[in-house]
Amino acid sequence: MENPYLPYPVRIDRIITETEDRNLKTFRFVFSDPANEEGFSYTPGQFAELSIPGRGEIPIGIASSPTEKGFVMFTVNKVGLVSKYLHNMKEGDIMGIRGPLGNWYPWEEMEGKNVVIIGGGFAFTTLRSSIIYMLQPENRSRFKDISVVYGARSPGMLLYKDELAEWEKRDDIDMHITVDGTDDPDWKYNVGFVPTITEQKITSADNAIAIVCGPPVMIKFTQPVLEKLGFPPDRIIFSLEMRMKCGIGICGRCNIGDKYVCKDGPVFSLAQLKQMPPEY
Amino acid sequence: MTEKVFTKEEWTKALKGLSDAYRVFVPVKDGDFHVFKPLDEGKRPDFDFQNTRLSPKSTVYPRSERMFEYTVDENDPEANTLTESEKDYSPQAIVGIRPCDAHAFQIVKLNFDNPEYRDPWWVQHFESTTLVGLGCNEPSSTCFCTQVGGGPFNEKGLDALFYDLEESYLVRGLTEKGEEFLKKVKGGTEADDAEKKKAEELALSAPKKIDVRVPTDKLKEKVQTELFEAPFWEDVAFACLNCGTCTYLCPTCWCFDIQDEVLDKEGDRIRNWDSCMFPLFTLHGSGHNPRDKKVQRVRQRFMHKLKYYVDKYGDGVQCSGCGRCVRYCPVNIDIRQVCELMNNYG
């Protein structure tokens, strides 16, 4: 009988320290059995359980794009037992990943629309996946204008700095990188909180859909900005976090009302959230 | 349909004779309470009980269950690779299960065996289990099965049902699994009309002894967010100690935790029953906790059973009316009253 709790064995292929406080590292995994890569067929917005024998599992958004072949990638904040242990593991170490899990961003609905991506702090992972995915030559024409507002506390806390710099140079994506504050005189991007920069840079909700991923305080203040811009609730999309165990809607802890964040989410529109108890 | 009658002595003897075919679980007196235990050497079933303190859910869904095994010994080429723990899925029979507890397995099945995912351990344990129920001649004061889609002689979810006719038992096969079980039970005589009539009378009179009314008819039409914000939750939760007794005794509570345990170099991934009464249940790694207050956790328990489940499956409440949580709650929180509050709100 198929076992949805059994992870695929993977090898840590590469570890990149992303932020100046060294609390965020990106892990690239390669499947021990190449055939498993096909079984792990995913869509941007989904997550997986990173499984470390002897420590446990943690649900983490998939940061790589399905268009990137040969590996899957996750960026992990050092917070708990499993993530702390993972941060001390080495390239070449064997562990597991279980998934892909959950739903994804509404790609069908996004086709033919302007896409506004709003991210804050370390919640930029599945947004990176989405940007890489949309910028692929075979996908780019399916979407109209792509705008990105991405903020972090300081320049050194931004994720994927090389890629951000590359996207800045392109003319088929409109980048608005911001930091809460900096004393770097050479900082050439914005200074200000994500909601403020969103209000300044995003001028229209016409034929647009907004994908928002960030800490609760950022979400709280960005939502009214988007509503003021004229985004209807079904075109404001959030990705939620919750303590999870099984990842498949069975173990019972990650519910909001009758929805499980692990299976019915993690992606919900504001329209959906308005029908659900505010318990997240 | 097989209908046989056994004297009480014969029935116990016949059950003992099943050891080659089944692992037989029966209610056994243990101190002041009854509990389901394997009918091993020296054990004597005691069918003169109202219900066991713990439901028999652990026979299908153990309190603690090995999922995977592994070694963390770096010298082993298989280090850090999980393999499924071996399980014993040989047939088992739960003899004397009350109809409410059998109904509970049907309620829980929707969670563990759904169109998207099948929990391999629950499903295989359940499939290897035959449920032989004992109807309730004298429901207790905390019973309310009749109010939530069941009854003292309800056959829902049972493979066979036996009736206590004072001097003897009348046993009826209800499913293929139940008929298979009865084929293996030695002895007994075909039930005669008088015995069948007596059984029918019991089945008719017992439900009338449950006179509590627990309305559930309007739960479905309530708006989830409105019920969530109802003013009575603080009152309902006021006395609660968050001890979790209700969730552990409940035959329809299914939540579990997953933990890794390593001894020396050998590790297990284990799942354990968990409880929404505990703050750790929903504590994020970041420290954020969407249910860090007692009232939120108490509300979650009742909303899950009496509203979220109703909305999700459209198949009644997540409660079989066994009354254990009412009976054993140290501060007398009564799900029957909470259900009425919810049903009549607004």
Describe the protein.
- The complex is a heterodimer of chains A (280) and B (346).
- Chain A has 280 residues and is α/β, with parallel strands linked by helices.
- Chain A is built from 9 helices and 15 strands.
- Chain A folds into 2 domains: 8-100, Elongation Factor Tu (Ef-tu), domain 3; 107-239, Rossmann fold, CATH 3.40.50.80.
- Chain A has helices at 36-39, 81-87, 107-110, 125-135, 137-140, 161-169, 194-201, 216-229, 270-274, and strands at 8-17, 24-31, 47-52, 56-61, 72-77, 94-101, 114-120, 146-152, 174-179, 190-191, 208-213, 236-239, 255-256, 259-260, 267-269.
- In chain A, the strands form 3 sheets. A 7-stranded mixed beta sheet of chain A has the order 10-9-8-7-11-12-15, with helices on both faces. A 6-stranded antiparallel beta sheet of chain A has the order 4-3-6-1-2-5, covered by helices on one side.
- Chain A is globular and about 50 Å long.
- The mean pLDDT of chain A is 96.
- With 346 residues, chain B is of the alpha+beta class.
- Chain B has 2 domains: 3-209, no CATH class; 224-343, no CATH class.
- Chain B has helices at 8-16, 99-112, 120-127, 176-184, 193-205, 224-228, 233-237, 245-249, 294-313, 324-328, 335-343, and strands at residues 3-7, 23-30, 33-38, 64-71, 83-84, 92-97, 129-134, 160-164, 168-173, 189-190, 256-263, 266-273.
- In chain B, the strands form 2 sheets. In chain B, strands 3-2-6-7-8-9-1-10 form an 8-stranded mixed beta sheet.
- At the A-B interface, strand 4, strand 6 and strand 13 of A face strand 4, helix 3, helix 6, strand 11 and strand 12 of B.
In summary, what is this structure?
Chain A is an alpha/beta fold.
Write the layout of secondary structure elements.
The complex is a heterodimer of chains A (280) and B (346).
Chain A: E1 8-17, E2 24-31, H1 36-39, E3 47-52, E4 56-61, E5 72-77, H2 81-87, E6 94-101, H3 107-110, E7 114-120, H4 125-135, H5 137-140, E8 146-152, H6 161-169, E9 174-179, E10 190-191, H7 194-201, E11 208-213, H8 216-229, E12 236-239, E13 255-256, E14 259-260, E15 267-269, H9 270-274
Parallel strand pairs in A: 7-8, 7-11, 8-9, 9-10, 11-12
Antiparallel strand pairs in A: 1-2, 1-6, 2-5, 3-4, 3-6, 12-15, 13-14
Chain B: E1 3-7, H1 8-16, E2 23-30, E3 33-38, E4 64-71, E5 83-84, E6 92-97, H2 99-112, H3 120-127, E7 129-134, E8 160-164, E9 168-173, H4 176-184, E10 189-190, H5 193-205, H6 224-228, H7 233-237, H8 245-249, E11 256-263, E12 266-273, H9 294-313, H10 324-328, H11 335-343
Parallel strand pairs in B: 2-6, 6-7, 7-8
Antiparallel strand pairs in B: 1-9, 1-10, 2-3, 4-5, 4-12, 8-9, 11-12
